[in-house]
Amino acid sequence: MESSECENVSKEKEAFEEEEFEASAMDSLIDMPFATVDIQDECAITDVPHINLERSKENEWISKDQIKKKKKKQKDYQPNYFLSIPITNKEITRGIKILQNAIIQQDKQLAKAMISDGSFHITLLVMQLLNEEEVNIGIGALLELKPFIEEILQGKQLILPFQGIDTFGNQVGFVKLAEGDHINPLLEIAETAKRTFQEKGILAGENRGFKPHLTFMKLSKAPWLRKKGVKKIDPEFYEKFISHRFGEEMVHRIDLCSMLKKKQSNGYYHCESSIVIGELESPSSTVLQRYRKDIPSWPSGDKNGGEPDDAELVRLSKRLVENAVLKAVQQYLEETQNKSKPGDGSSVKTQEADRNGTDSDNNRK
């Protein structure tokens, strides 16, 4: 009796191991280059094995061709546009100028590696837009992003505190974003932006994870520094600022900017379009009402006579109204921040190198 039970157990064990082996073999085939949706046909027993062999070779060729195309696509992917959160708090810009001047005093050559204060920003997403049509698609994606951001923030302000200094490989110097409750919504906004633009067919994003940072210098702005022996940013140059608190930025705007087009007169990047977020919606609505009379045939909005959405606004006014709104909102912000911080002087003025130049190191914008 015991012998019979042992024999049955042995047979069940052999059957189980055989099933495991088949499953393992199937898993291995799935990882092979020629594996496609026809994987079950590839493994099935047939009276004409040479047909499967030909199909396998065909699938392998198709797979290799797809891999080549994917590699070429990745190689051709050169971001030239980005979503920017501009830094407008004068306390932050003034602190960074002090930091930059302290570094320049220790090595005057590094003046050419500094980012101008008009360009300070947080990069939310990089992308490739090759022509005017793709730029318009990008603008549409940015407008679609706005309600998603409002849903993430739930009516709350997104305030970004900046503290301390770090570098990327001692080649790019940046002010760090302090830890806190603001990190998760910012990361969620970045991920939502990436998904929204990619769903429009836009090549966007990077392989590495999103790490928000405020760049203040990069050696790639002055390649000739390497020939003069400056191959990295010496940590001693910024050690006094290693835990310095630079201030807080209230996120009120996200811009679609060009990396390559000529910068604006204030040093900020060429901006294709923008969205206003947060509690500044009310002042912007006031300005919109002011400019309504300048639009010849303003529609009644939806069937219930509601206000037109941002997409309608941009189509009707060709972004002229939106630009006026953004200027008014920015002025409102600056006046509010200046009133809340009495005694703030004008920011330190220094020479701005290559203001109209372009940065070749797009990966560390």
Automatic annotation (TrEMBL):
Basic and acidic residues composition-biased segments: 351-365
Instruction: Please give an example of a GO cellular component term from this record.
Output: nucleus
Organism of provenance: Lynx canadensis (Canada lynx)
Q: Where in the cell is it found?
A: Cytoplasm; Nucleus
Q: What UniProt keywords are attached to this protein's entry?
A: Cytoplasm, Nucleus
One Pfam family this chain carries? Answer: AKAP7_NLS
Superkingdom assignment = Eukaryota
| SUPFAM superfamilies hit by this protein | LigT-like (SSF55144)
Entry annotated with the keyword NADP: no
Residue spans crossing the bilayer: none
- Which GO BP terms, alphabetically? regulation of protein kinase A signaling
Q: Where is this region: Disordered?
A: 333-365
* Assembly notes: Binds cAMP-dependent protein kinase (PKA). Interacts with PRKCA; only the cytoplasmic form is capable of interacting with PRKCA.
Q: Tell me where in this chain the A-kinase anchor protein 7 RI-RII subunit-binding domain is found.
A: 306-362
Q: What is this protein called?
A: A-kinase anchoring protein 7
Q: One MF term in GO for this entry?
A: protein kinase A regulatory subunit binding
As recorded in Swiss-Prot or TrEMBL, the protein's gene is named AKAP7
Q: Where is the A-kinase anchor protein 7-like phosphoesterase domain?
A: 79-276
